[in-house]
From TrEMBL:
PANTHER family: MEMBRANE TRANSPORTER PROTEIN MJ0441-RELATED (PTHR43701), MEMBRANE TRANSPORTER PROTEIN YTNM-RELATED (PTHR43701:SF12). Keywords: Cell membrane, Membrane, Transmembrane, Transmembrane helix. InterPro entries: TM_pro_TauE-like, TSUP/Inactive_protease-like. Belongs to the 4-toluene sulfonate uptake permease (TSUP) (TC 2.A.102) family. This is Probable membrane transporter protein. It is a multi-pass membrane protein. The chain crosses the membrane at residues 12-38, 44-71, 83-104, 110-130, 171-199, 205-231, 243-265, 271-289. GO terms for cellular component: plasma membrane. It is found in: Cell membrane; Membrane. It comes from Croceibacterium soli.
């Protein structure tokens, strides 16, 4: 079943796009990531222009996050206070990202920058996540418990002023730390069409020191509102949002997020992280390969 995408100006197989939405929705429910870090490059591989893929993926991530937040909220797995601070930083970051997106588009470098960012970020995160997962699987159970007991927030976080108590996360830290983290996630959301969860979740665990029981739900809460803000800014400034593409992706992602939330409580976490790391590294390698190969058609689609 072919579907015409008016902004991307091409026809795609609707079933393939729906299945892609299901896959990213499952990742959203399992790991607390919006799934955009895979949606955008996979759409690019399929032939969708990078600018349209990034803007439309942010819209799809919003839908997947709504479903995921409800699923985790029922388990009391969302720290709304922490999420509110992250969202505030994310909106500021989205504004800054919109300016960068327009500047890079005017310079004709936005497609290349998107690809380079994906290779760098996915390669780094995939490598670190894969190493940590393998170590966790190979260690004895008592060693894993010993490591978990030592988790604290980063020393730099401790040095920041104006501490607040985040009761649900079990933290007493400055709100400036999650605020700055939210700004970074907001910029990445605008430039790459990602929810930022693949960076936010590890940062919440190892930099902020949050309780693992609320990390996934709080990440999805942040992603929900930041991607909404990014979508509005894309629609008003870059005009690169393809509503048909986003709608077809949403059909699958909302269902996938519910499935992912169920899988998350029944499969060994270390094994899930290893699987995600392998997927991330595979996408990074494919993006790197694409940077070094001359495309079939040497032009870029710039929405009017």
């Amino acid at each position: 079943m072919d579907v015409y995408l008016p902004i991307a100006n091409l026809a795609v197989n609707g079933l393939v796009i729906v299945l892609l939405g299901v896959g990213t929705g499952i990742l959203s429910g399992i790991f607390g990531v919006g799934g955009g870090f895979l949606t955008t490059p996979l759409l690019i591989f399929y032939g969708v222009p990078p600018t349209v893929a990034a803007a439309s993926a942010a819209t799809q991530v919003t839908g997947a996050s709504v479903s995921g937040v409800f699923a985790h909220s029922r388990r009391n797995g969302v720290d709304y206070q922490m999420g509110g601070v992250l969202v505030a930083g994310g909106v500021v970051g989205a504004l800054l990202g919109a300016g960068l997106f327009n500047l890079l588009t005017a310079l004709g470098q936005i497609d290349t920058v998107i690809s380079i960012l994906y290779v760098a970020l996915l390669g780094t995160v995939g490598s670190l996540m894969g190493r940590e997962s393998l170590q966790a699987l190979l260690r004895k159970e008592d060693a894993a418990k010993k490591r978990a007991a030592k988790r604290r927030h980063h020393p730099l976080v401790s040095s920041l002023p104006m501490r607040w108590r985040f009761y649900r996360s079990g933290l007493y830290i400055s709100p400036l730390a999650p605020l700055l983290l939210g700004v970074v996630i907001g910029i990445l959301t605008m430039l790459m069409g990602v929810g930022g969860g693949f960076i936010l979740v590890p940062a919440m665990l190892y930099i902020l020191g949050m309780s693992a029981s609320v990390v996934v739900g709080t990440s999805l809460f942040n992603i929900l509102f930041v991607t909404m803000a990014a979508t509005m800014m894309h629609a008003l400034t870059t005009k690169a949002v393809d509503i048909v593409l986003a709608g077809v992706l949403l059909l699958g992602s909302v269902v996938g997020a519910q499935l992912g939330a169920k899988i998350a409580v029944s499969v060994k976490p270390e094994l899930l992280r290893l699987m995600l790391a392998l997927i991330v590294l595979a996408v990074a390698l494919r993006m790197a390969f694409g940077l070094g190969v001359q495309p079939d058609e040497i032009y870029s689609v710039v929405p009017l």
